[in-house]
Amino acid sequence: MLEVNREMVWKGTKTGLHTTWELGKVVVPTAMLVAVFRASGLLDSITALFAPYMGYLGLSGEAAIVLFSGYFVNLYAAAGSIMALNLTIKEITICSVMLGFCHSLLVELPISQKAGSPLGYIFIIRLACSLAVGWLLGVVLP
Q1: Are 75 and 88 in contact (CB under 8 A)?
Q2: Taking the alpha carbons of 7, 11, 14, 16 in that order, is the dihedral positive or negative?
Q3: In CA terms, which of 8, 16, 57, 62 is 20 to 30 Å from 68?
Q4: How far apart are CA 77 and CA 61, in angstroms?
Q5: Residue-wise pLDDT tens digits, 106-123
Q6: 34 and 53 Cβ atoms separated by less than 8 Å
Q7: DSSP letters along 39-65, please?
Q8: How far apart are the first and last CA of the chain?
Q9: Are the CB atoms for 123 and 130 separated by under 8 Å?
Q10: Contact indicator for 70, 130 with CB cutoff of 8 Å
């Protein structure tokens, strides 16, 4: 039987606070940046620019912010963007699955290249899979 003691609780608390801090360093600034974009009107411009293309994926133009932050920064930046936007459950689902295939490109592509993978090929495969599953879910989900 597992016995909970003071040391275990302290270690778990310390680890949890450290993890919260690490995630917060990305999620909070991203959410704030999206809020600034919204207040300045820049979000409306970005939304209008990408809305026609995002429609093919069953997404609103605002979802482009989520995808770009996830594609180029990381999944936590995408989570911060989702928190700052008014996306539907369908849009969050589609973006989440798409980002599962293609995320953190600025970090992961150089790592793949160092491992011996052809950079262009890996990029195209990941992005194509992401867009294909986005299109499929956009068609299938009500």
Answers
A1: no
A2: negative
A3: 16
A4: 17
A5: 888 898 889 998 989 999
A6: no
A7: HHTHHHHHHHHHHHHHGGGT--TTHHH
A8: 47
A9: no
A10: no
**Mean pLDDT lowest for which of 25-29, 63-67, 75-79, 127-131?**
25-29
On the question of pLDDT at 25 being above 90, the answer is no
CA 48, CA 61: separation in Å to the nearest integer? 6
Rounded to the nearest 10 degrees, the angle between the axes of helix 89-101 and helix 75-84 is 170
Q: Which tokens go with 83?
A: 């928190």
Among positive and negative, which fits the CA dihedral 49, 51, 54, 56?
A: negative
Does residue 31 have a pLDDT over 90? no
Domain ranges of the chain: 7-140
Structure confidence by residue, pLDDT tens digits, 83-104: 999 999 999 999 999 999 999 9
Q: What does pTM read for this prediction?
A: 0.81
